[in-house]
Amino acid sequence: xxxxxxxxxxxGSALGAEVRYFISRYPRFEKLFAFSLAxxxxxxxxxxxxxIILDIPLSIEWKSxxxxxxxxxxxxxxxxxxxTVSLSAKTNKRRSIAYLFISIVLSLIAFEFGWxxx
Length: 118
What we know:
Elements: H1 2-24, H2 30-33, H3 37-55, H4 60-74, H5 77-90, H6 93-117
Helix pairs in contact: 1-4, 3-4, 3-6, 5-6
């Protein structure tokens, strides 16, 4: 069963990563916002969808595919950290802290909202 869930999750992760890559290639609004709007939107929407997935009655296979797989591959903590550090180096520290705060707080709110909807 573990091997089966690993394969299911890996397939979902590949799909989620491709969706993230596709979204991140669209024009960024960094000149307007000085940070990647794509990463914030991906992480917030992923948190929202994960909240829904965790609370609806699905088989363990579907939860692995959708949650660990697609949403795990879609959202990206490492890119979020890289962009936070880069923003701090390129601009003032307050903008970096605002990016960090907005990303975390809105992702938590989105997850809770999704969980309540699920």
